[in-house]
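User: For a benchmark we're assembling, each entry needs the component sequences followed by a predicted structure for the full assembly. Here are entry 17's components. Please fill in the structure.
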Amino acid sequence: MKFTLSWLKSHLETDATLAQIETALTDIGLEVEGIDDPSQHLGGFIVGHILSAEKHPNADKLRLCTVETGSGTIQVVCGAPNARAGLKVILAQPGTYIPHNGEVLKKGNVRGVESQGMMCSWRELKLGEDHDGIAELAADTAIGARLLDIMSFDPMIEISVTPNRVDCLGVRGIARDLAAGGLGTLKPLMVEPVPGRFKSPIGVRLDFDAESADACPLFAGRLIRGVKNGDSPQWLKDRLTTIGLRPISVLVDITNFFTYDLCRPLHVFDAAKVKGDIRARLSVAGETLAGLNGKTYTLDAGMTVIADDAGPEALAGILGGEPSGCTAATTDVFLEAAYFDPIRTAATGRRLDILSDARFRFERGVDPAFVVPAMELATRMILDLCGGEASEPVIAGTEPDWQKSIVLRPSRVAELGGVEVSVDRMETILNDLGCAVAEHADGLLVNPPSWRGDITAEHDLVEEIIRINGYHNIPSVPLPRSSMPRPVLTPSQRRAGWVRRQLATRGLVETVTWSFLPEAQALMFGGGAPEMHLANPISSDLDVMRPSVLPNLVSAVGRNADRGMRDLGLFEIGPQFDGPEPGQQRQVAAGVRAGKARTRHWAEAARAVDAFDAKADVLAAIAAAGGNPDSLQVVAEAPVWYHPGRSGTLKLGNKAVAFFGELHPGILAKLDVKGPVAAFELFLEALPLPKAKATKARPLLKASAFQPLERDFAFILDSAVAADAVIRAAKGADRALVTDVTLFDLYEGDKMAAGKKSLAISVTLQPTEKTLTDEEIEAIGAKIVQAVIKATGGELRG
Amino acid sequence: MQDLDRIRSEALAEIAASQSLEQLDAVRVAALGKKGSITGLMKSLGAMSAEDRKAAGAMLNAARDEVSAALDTAKAVLEAGALDSRLARERIDVTLSARPETQGRIHPISQVMDEMSAIFAQMGFEVAEGPDIEDDFHNFTALNIPQEHPARQMHDTFYFGEKADGSRHLLRTHTSPVQIRTMVANKPPIRIIAPGRTYRCDSDMTHTPMFHQIEGLVIDKTTHMGHLKGCLMEFVTTFFEVDEVPVRFRPSFFPFTEPSAEVDIGCSREGGELKIGPGKGWLEIGGSGMVHPNVLRACGLDPEVYQGFAFGMGVERMAMLKYGIPDLRTFFDSDLRWLKHYGFVPFDVPTLSGGLTR
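Assistant: Structure for entry 17:
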């Protein structure tokens, strides 16, 4: 919402400075978006007097002028055709900021002659578009006077108005709020009905059934004949121009003026072009309207229109029609002031995609009690500016019911607002805002004004009071709290934090990627069902909720590779979406490693990433989350986006806790990423939360006094036997003595028969009660060998 | 026995002449080994008379001890020499690079959320969560945004397809639905923050279709606007880790709060550098207000009994302001250079005792 300072002052009696008004606007909730004060940059300009203007010795089109500054004379080279002796001009001397180009003027040398200043055009001052020559001031202007002292400037103020405050989409509403805020006095607005001289030849009707009667409950109009629709007076043109509206003709300008001045959109029809009576009705599907904006609209059924015998002439509250629009030739004008239903107006405007100042106001709900008064005021203005004579008003329908009574318990202001305000002050504020206030058993009985449809209940009044009283006057109070705060994170939140920092410690870089991705990628990763599509995606490659975090991470790997970073690890902890209902999402910690796990280095051979990198990451993450990796089963199966032979699932019972492995080369090819890429997906909620313990004490350390011993065994096994089976069997051979089994060698080379492999394990025995004798060690060794052979069908390697 | 002096002198001379531990050992074997010369003389003692044996034995023992001591001394010298030469051989170029290790980073969004949790935990806020896919009730209706309310036009919402009953789910446009879920599930007093992903159909220089918000909610019987001011003023000063951050509460409008306020913090822009703190400028950081009675009612709470405040802030925006990150869109680029530059090392767990940021 834009307006000018002088416009505001036409409604507000105030001595406040622009800066004070700016602060007050923000303080009462009318956020200032910007102020354009042309005088801000004009402080350095003075009035000069051209004493002589000679031809420049070295240029035909330039003139060499002697200019009197009030404190001496200077020499100025000027190219303007109207630079002539005797002219009073606007003069800039070196050091003056020139608004048009944003530069500070320097002493110049033009074709060998020094120029000690500049005589300015209106455009150079940003005070107009005129650049045909330098600005000419009146002959009696005082030489040497500051430009600011001889001209007045009207600063433009732009505020943003929240959707509840339609009343502040008119300058008068803003003035009222400022007056309530203590910045001055609201000037009275006198509405004197204009007596009708004749009966309007055009009648108005409301053609609605009971169901749609609220579309337009009140329609007022009147005919004014014998008008002259020329240019608006300069003051009106200036106001419209300053807020960015183009003056068109005085009749149209008056309607625009009312829209911004009083938040009261009106419409004017050229009465000569109206056929029969004017009626408000709902449109019939297929009707068309050629709008004043140059576009033709085909209407759906049920849009509110203003029509005559020929069909729709205007979209109610949104746009006038071109055929019945006023032109310079208009002599008889029919003025419309009506109330249109906000919801229908908004729906029609959205449907036809028309943004207009009228729609903006009607859809927020204009003052329902200001229909007929506005028509009277507009009639007066038309008569004043265009001449003519007015008919009797024609009015159809009645004012919609807007009256409300609200009881305000004064104690609620402090209880909710946290600030003490006296009841007197409350009354004053409410009165200033236009409320009628009376005594009530519980406090105050408040009747909000017709233009404040947003005030419907007690809390609205509390807001009005503390808003006008000033939020800065609310004392800030620390939230009462316990002196020693308790931990507040849930176990699963803490767990996600541990996993995050564990993965980062392992060299993976955390990233955050979109929750949506291209359908093609969703399909590759087990998603893409129709119900997971967005109806209105931001773009076609972000149209489906992600069924896995991995595609985004793989794409990120590709983007980084394109930037020359091929060896990297990324992870993300975030949701994957399993279904379209709220809650059908899982928190996943997913990671990828790409390129080389070890880069080329003098001390070590380079190595590409593989499934065991991903396995190490996911096991570390599980351990960080408090899970026990030993309780998980490793199964050689994984979803289709993994390499079928180089991937696995970590299971807890039947439940998959994590997938890991190399990604399927086919998937990588489709994502245009060079492999190998090792990846994991850990479903955090699938890990059981640790049981709450009664005490933080740890179990007693049982450290054996006896030396542990290690024994190595090698087995020849079928290639298909899982290493895990060997380890589990060895561990199970004597759970008391065997404390650790590690696999230290895998051989599948030429020395093995086809389909066979050799695995070597190291078993740690930890005696707890006495040192083991050689016979006992022998016996346990035999037990271990037996257990492994039984479990795997292999044999001890000799 | 006549040979003893000779054997002893020869052995001592050979010890002295030994250049290596191997040579030395050969000398030892030759003198003191099983078939050694001194050992041989020892064996001959058995054949002597007791008297002779006593005298010869003493001489033999003395000679054996002397040779043995000389061997030990020479061995120590040779070992020290051998170690010296081994160490000299083992010299490395210490300017060679160490084996490479990589360290990951924590994304600024996670880090800032952790910082915020740490601060609000101090004020007794718990951390609540809610789903990204929401229904109309939790995202709009319960938040006092009826179907035809113009405020709905303020949100550009991502919708899913229409269901059989005509309803359609959506991606939450704010974290406020978590307020609703919390109030429905829990009895006051309530103090929660709810950080999380939010979505709006918007993408340009300063908007991304997904971003993060943190929501705050306090519901009890006495909390008022003054507490809202106090809470957020304490928060911003702690969060930005500067001595003073001016905070301005501006009246505004949100359907789910009344009275409503936008929250601005002070800043200066001298020399083109943005600094949070006292200065001429203001930066908007979020919206806030007293929870609207209609919202309380929608959650089954009586607004005549319960009241409180709510606020919402953009996580990326706070991160940008605090850490001087210029472009919102880069948060979601996964550009390794950006992640390493603006990310945080994993040990930097924000705490109030140690400070939020290094």
